[in-house]
Amino acid sequence: MRNQRSDRRRIARAVTWRIVAMLALFSSRPHLASAQATMRPHAIRIVGTDYALAGPDTVGGGLAAFYFENRGAKQHEIAVVLARPGTTAAQIVAAAKSGLPAPKLGAAYSDGPPLGALFAAPGHTNQAALVSSLERGRDYVIVCTLRDDPSMPEHAELGMFHVLHVR
Ligand SMILES: [Cu+2]
Description:
Helix content is about 35%, strand content about 30%. By secondary structure, the protein is an alpha+beta fold.
């Protein structure tokens, strides 16, 4: 009788500890989920046509993932470049339209090398993402520097660029 009672007590104690452990596990989940949510990059979708790039004009700062969909009939890319402080969007647009080739255009307005690039075949979306941390208060230039033919102008000169401001 006495042994049975102490067995029951031991089992009750073990069950209680298991419940406490489970509650602790479940209550810690929302914290885990919110930590993961703050780490998840926000998506920036860029759509290319022949010959333009469309996307948001303004985004929030922090971790971002660029995606590229090509709705055009030609091969296109997006190269993402951080604009040099003090360079205005109007200056960048004018430089792109003046026909400066990519290296000189980059030297004219970029703050360092491109963050990266994504390519997409006609009618396709690149399944990869370009992930980078965007600096608040800065402008990023998204540009396609491809040509249909070596004798043809760069797509940027034809209008394939987009300026993105980070709030
Ligand atoms: Cu292009």
